[in-house]
Amino acid sequence: RLHATDVTSSSFRLVWPQLLSQESGYYSLEYGPGTDPARRRRQQLPGALSSLVLSQLAPNTTYEVALTPESNVRFFPRQTTRVTTLPEEISPAQVLISEPGPHSFHVSWAPVLDSVASYQLLYGPLPGNSVRVLEVDGRHNSTVVEHLAPNTTYLVTVTAVYRSGKEKSLSAKACTQEGERG
Questions:
Q1: What count of other Cβ atoms lies within 10 Å of the Cβ of residue 95?
Q2: For the Fibronectin type-III domain, which residue ranges apply (predicted)?
Q3: What share of the chain is helix, strand, coil (3-state, %, to 5)?
């Protein structure tokens, strides 16, 4: 009857029936990766609780969870469950260049994740070392890069800045079209 909801790559919520009250006892919670007993964590929980979020977990890992109601009134059997966290989603997993013009092109990327605070776009002509930076809010997954030179190849790097501070980057090449001859 102990089960998990809201499973992500780094957390899940444990839910169990209300067996105890604040006065009648407490719960002993033990959890950890099934493969590694040394990494098990233990916690004492107040008897009034009937759910708890476990966070800072490893992605794509099966956790063994045991909840023992410790009551001085009556005996409750230990409840166990196994929960597998989701694989870590990484953004950007793909970068797409579209709508090239002589002075601009459109850049989009996927997936958009809640764990990403913002995106940084670095772009500059190839070959060359002049690089410009564009900041994009983490809720957006596309932008237009403008004021470019015609008939030029650009290297575009999209970097996801995660709320945790981690960063992941992916690059793509883009070519602007030839300008009007006049």
A1: 19
A2: 1-88, 91-179
A3: 0, 50, 50
pTM confidence score: 0.59
Give the residue from 3, 5, 1, 24 showing the smallest Cα distance to 77. Answer: 1
Class level of CATH domain 3-85: mainly beta
- Two domains, one topology: 3-85 and 94-176: yes
Place of tokens 């233990």: 42
Report the CATH superfamily, name and number, of domain 94-176. Answer: Immunoglobulins (2.60.40.10)
Is a pLDDT exceeding 80 seen at residue 49? Answer: yes
Q: 125-137 burial string, b = 16+ CB within 10 Å, else e?
A: eeeeeeeeebebe
pLDDT digits (tens, 9 = 90+) for 107-165: 999 988 888 999 999 999 998 889 999 999 999 999 999 999 999 999 999 999 998 88
